[in-house]
Each structure stands twice: as C-alpha cells, then as structure tokens.
Amino acid sequence: MFKVYGTSVSGNCYKVKLLLEQLGKQYQWQEVNSLTGETRTPEFLAINANGRVPVLQIEHGRYLPESNAILCYLADGTEFWPAERREKAETLQWMFFEQYSHEPYVAVARFIKKFLPPDHPRQAELPRLVERGYQALDVMEKHLAERRYMVGQRYSIADIALFAYTHVASDGGMDLGRYVAIDTWIERVKAQPRFVPLPAE
Amino acid sequence: MFKVYGTSVSGNCYKVKLLLEQLGKQYQWQEVNSLTGETRTPEFLAINANGRVPVLQIEHGRYLPESNAILCYLADGTEFWPAERREKAETLQWMFFEQYSHEPYVAVARFIKKFLPPDHPRQAELPRLVERGYQALDVMEKHLAERRYMVGQRYSIADIALFAYTHVASDGGMDLGRYVAIDTWIERVKAQPRFVPLPAE
Q1: Which of A68, B121, B154, B168 has the highest Cβ tally under 10 A?
Q2: pLDDT tens digit string along A25-48?
Q3: What was the ipTM of the complex prediction?
Q4: Which chain A residues have a beta carbon less than 8 Å from that of B101?
Q5: Residue B199 is assigned to a structural domain of this protein
C-alpha cells in the first residue's frame, strides 16, 4: 500500500490525494505539517533531502518527491496520462507550466494571505504575486476557451495539477469571476467520478 | 524537420539543442531574443501564449513549449528517458526539482549578474537567489555523491535538464569549487558522445 507524506491543506499534496481517490487506490496518509517546520527535521530530510511535501513512499525505503512526478508515476499506464507521444508531452507541458509559471504565484499568494499573520512582512509580496498569478490564469483561460480539458478530449493529470491551486486562487486575492472558461472547467473537474475536495483547514 | 525557437545563451534553450545533437536529429534553429522582448510580440505569443522560449515546432502549426516537456517528447522511446516506471518518474522528479527549486535561483542569478547592468535594481535580489541556489546545489551534491548520473546507471534527460544551468552557476556568483561530486558529474556530462557546449555569448 502506498504511503503519502503530506500537509492536508497544501494544494500540491491534495493533487496526490485526489488522483489516488480517483484511481481507487488504497493508501495511508501521514500528516506532516510543513507550516510548523516538520519538513525540515533530520527524519524528514532523510526521506526528501529537498525538504518538501508531498512524498510518495513507493516501497519500503523508496521515496518519490515532487507532486507532479508522483502524479505521473501513479497515472502511468492509466487513462489519466495519455499514452500518445504528443499528448503525453502536452500533459507534461502544462504540469511544468503549473510548477514554473502558476504555483509560485497563485499558491504562494494563497499561502501568505491565508496562513501568515496580516502584519507579516511577506504580505508586501502580494501585489507582484497577484499580478503574475493573473498572467498564468490568463494563459489558462485562453487555452480553455476552446477546450473542455487541458489536454486532448479527456480529464488527465494536467487538469489535476492545475485544478489544485486554481480553484482556490481567491484565497490569494485573485478574482476568478473574470474567467468564464476556467470557471466552467472547475465545475467540470468537480463533477469527475470519485472527486474529493481540498480540505479547507 | 523540427524547428526550435530559442535564445542561444539561455540554458533552457540549450537543453533542447544538446539533446537534438545527441540524438543526431536534424533541426532548424530560429533565434528569438528573449532579452529584447522578442518573446512578447503578438507573433510569438501566437506560438506560445506564455511568452517563453524554448518552443519546439513539432509539425506545421503545432508547437510545444516548456524545455523539460520538449526533452521528454524528444527522448520518448529512446535511451535518454528510462522506460521503467519508477526510473521514468524519478527522471521527472529531478526535472520538476530543476524547474521549481533550482532554475528560479541558479538561472535567475546568472541572468541578473551576466545580462543586466551592474546598477540595475534587480542586483538586490542576488543574495537571496545565491542562498537558495546553494540549497539546490547541496541537494544535487548529496545525491551525486553516491551516483554517476541523476537517475539509474546512465545519462538521461534528468542530467541534461540539470546540467544546463548547474555548469554555469558561477555566472550567478555561486562557487562550484565546494562541490566535488557535482564537479565530477559535470565532466562526465561533457564527455558524453555528441556533446556540444552552451554558447558563451
């Protein structure tokens, strides 16, 4: 059985939970609170030297970090990761987009606004993060205006990766009301079989 | 024949060039200068709405952005991307590590120090970027201390993705002299068949 080391309120960790639920896989969830430094202990660094969650324990002593690499591992050979060469690469394209151009703004703005005190010095980062977050959402809106899903004709791990923080972008101060295609796509993702929500707290 | 839209001095673009050379593929290189705003023109945004290089033209009117997704596309079915499920995911793990925990520090420090004027306000970002860059290099050093390559027993696209900016980390003010395993690995990468260097200017 898989074991996931994760912080429940983290979108990156939620990605793994959502896919495991949708695959109908049994798993054990080991809560690790990244907000209180539990990902920086010697014990956790022995599991992931980069000190981040989620981490998937594949077998005894074998650990896989990086949320999107975990999605690819779990989805390998299933309908959640297209097998056709170009669609396989386009799935990765959107997952790299998510980690480079989306998550560092949409997720970090949410972290600062939702989890740090209102007088924390990092609040000063918000205007730039929100601006860059909107740029990423603009790219998604343009793409989804002509499509039902991020890649091809069906729901995939590209949708899971981007849904995780997009649907809670308002937590970081972004107004999703201006995005018609994204809003429709969010409802489409929520209507998928075995969908489970991101825990609020 | 593939066409690559790229900036020659960019490590992300160099990844694609290096793999194409090592695969022995013919390709056309379309120089796009991201430093002078050529990735923000309406013509280029029609190719990649996210306004970044590299982009691979797969066929007429079909474009694939994101350097690491391009590497996966080109390496699919070759020895450069392991086919075994766990190694395939570990390859992606290091490529996501590169884009999230390494490139935003090691590459951005290089960009600021090498390509911006010495009195540019962004020079103020350097201390933090160098600190985070060292954290990423520490993770690589620990991993490479026990291995010849990033994944498994052979050179792969994980090595290409991480080599691109690691071997020029000194451009951003990081001292590679303290990393014995990384230094040996850099020489190992440079000794691969059909290796080509990153253009200096």
Answers
A1: A68
A2: 999 999 999 989 999 999 999 999
A3: 0.98
A4: 50, 52
A5: no
